[in-house]
Amino acid sequence: MWLVGVLFLSGGATGCRHEQYAALEEAGRTPVDGHYMLRDPDRIYHLPDDLEEISGLTWWKDNQLVCVQDEDGKLFLFDTETGKVTAEHKFGKDGDYEGVEVVGDRVYVTKSNGTLYEISAWETDDPHVRTHKTFLDDDNNVEGLGYDPAADALLLACKSKPGVKADDKVRSIYRFRRATETLEEEPWRLIHYPEVIDSLKAHNWLRTTEQQFQCRPSGVAVHPLNQKLYVLASTGKLLLVFDPQGNLEAVHPLNPRRFEQPEGICFAPNGDLYISNEGDDKGPNILLFRYEARPSADQ
């Protein structure tokens, strides 16, 4: 059994850092939900400079992803066969756009302040945009947008203030009902730090002290085949999996050498997983993990 070192202790930072990366490589040998080997993407798409700040992505159709970045009010169409951006569609002014979802013929985009934009005729030069204000704001810092088809509801993940009477060891996900065009007052799901920490400790995957631990959602998606909820956390470098009833099923640490700044997550209808990273040292990219039954690399 290998051990994960505590972060950057004085006098041993280099050795500790090396142990951490080695431990993360070992953690990557455990397939997520029995299907995704996070240390071995099936394909890496390198993105152009226009998507350096890619903040969200979603499946559309026919090998097409729709992406947003957190500076320009544009939708970017990305072809997963050619690995190229095929079109750009302007829908709004510059702003801090953080998530995107395609539902039917509509595209929804969220800002960090909790405002939702509903865009129809989005492929044309004259898109129609409706704005949905919610009670969330900049303090909540909405970064993830997903879709729950069972409830026909959009999912808004708060990176910061959970919006409930709780300490800072909780993060929240809210549901926006499309039928009523309202955000439910109570969080749909809560992410409790102690529960996440316990899961990591059970596998010796905790890479920091409990006092320093952070898990701040940056992306959220519902698996199309098993309806499990996947929550991506850029701050904390984690991927959380919840069963359809909301129980935390698994926590997987992400190696920052592979996941430099993971901000977006989505699935293709066949279960293929896409995770986007904002660019810094290595440039922006999208990682593809195909939906295949995979034993642990140790087996």
From TrEMBL:
Keywords: Cell membrane, Membrane. Its main location: membrane. It is found in: Cell membrane. InterPro entries: 6-blade_b-propeller_TolB-like (IPR011042), WD40/YVTN_repeat-like_dom_sf (IPR015943), YjiK/CarP (IPR009722). It comes from the Bacteria. GO terms for cellular component: plasma membrane. Gene3D superfamilies: TolB, C-terminal domain, YVTN repeat-like/Quinoprotein amine dehydrogenase. Belongs to the YjiK family. This is Uncharacterized protein YjiK. It comes from Catalinimonas alkaloidigena.
